[in-house]
Amino acid sequence: MAAIRRPARAVLAGAGAFALIATASPAIAGPADPSDLPAYSTQLDRPQTTDSAFVTECSEEPRDLPINEFTDHRELGVELDRIERNSDGRVDVEQVGMSNRGREIWSARVGTGPKAVLITSEIHGNEKTGTDAILDLLDWLSTSDSAKAKRWLKELTIVAVPKMNPDGAELDRRGNDMTWEEVTARFPQLRGSEPAWNYYTGSLQGDDYSDRPGFDTNRDYHPDLNYVPRAEDFPGTSEDTGWYITPESRTVRDVYRGLTAEFGEVDVYVDLHHQGACYVMPDDPDEFVTLSISGKFVDDPATMPGYEQYAANYDLDHSKRLNVAVYNALQGAANNRPLFGNVTLYPQDTNLPGTGLGSFALNGSGTVLFEVRGQTQTLGQQYRAVLTRAVYIGLDGMLSAVASGRVDKLDPADYDAIPPRGPSIGSDASQERKAASQQ
Ligand SMILES: [Zn+2]
Predict the structure, then answer these.
(1) Residue 274 Cα, ligand 1 centroid: separation in angstroms?
(2) Average pLDDT over residues 210-230
(3) Close Cβ partners of 332 (under 8 Å, ≥ 6 residues apart)
(4) What residue ranges do the domains of the chain occupy?
């Protein structure tokens, strides 16, 4: 399969790029094998003076907050290029698709192992820490000579698609940037249909979509990876499958389908999100949730009419074990920095087969959802470093458990014992905003 190569880029500009590179450079090797850790982790893994405000203060009011320290689309291209060039052939970066507005969607592949792991971030463009966590992970894995890195490279094939909705990311909003007219131009069979239910044309999370409508790309998936949009399936609902009408979901579907053909199945699929800023711990309403996780997104296909064909491959216990590995890693980190321990289970009563996680779970992948606290319009980049680190710690623990095979010995019952997410006490937020801030 011919890959479209990105042109090499050498020029860096903008505070964001410099900030990222300054914090994410590979560590200089020393006696304690610091190549196992990003250079800044020794600070981030210890309590900071801002931690008490982090766990006790919150607002859901949309504000115009800075995001320039996050990695934007151009900086992502620069960083991926740098990581690939410095990796001595370990990391392969390809352009795998293009957004509706013509921005490159890249994948980074590393490792030669038999277990395929797909990781995506920023399907919602105002949920940005996942992209930075992926870059930190690639940065470490591309150069580390540690035994851990060698095991990962031997056992895993990791394919990351960071910032999969670059148009939404550049606008710092949830939806992509695409009109229904552009959809029907591409799929003429949909002319005359009602637009998809997840088409945003009004106000959402403080963003005005009336001039630049868009879709929630994370409701545009279908477990039938060969599905072609049909007029009778519109407008659909949140409990229905999606349609692959957005180029962003089609790109990830194509990557997933390619990995399925190559490996038989994708062992793990991880999708990195943010949730509302004001969810509290269930047993301590004075402390906010740092991160919610989940492995369950759809009802049991054996009991869902029309989904029976997915029952044989669906493996909820595998997803539960993966999430237990994430949880355990963060509880371990909480020994040094307690806010990493504020991890809860995302609501388990969701039935969303149109999400990437739902569709790929139905195809047999173990699935992991990360929902770190606060979107950019509520927290901005205020806690970017610690939230990115929380994602990193969870990913690192989970991937280590998969690479070693230890994950198979974990008990799915431990997943059910993870504390449920408490209520959101951002009381002045509208119901619409609360609903939209979930996943
Ligand atoms: Zn999200």
Answers:
(1) 5
(2) 98
(3) 397
(4) 37-436
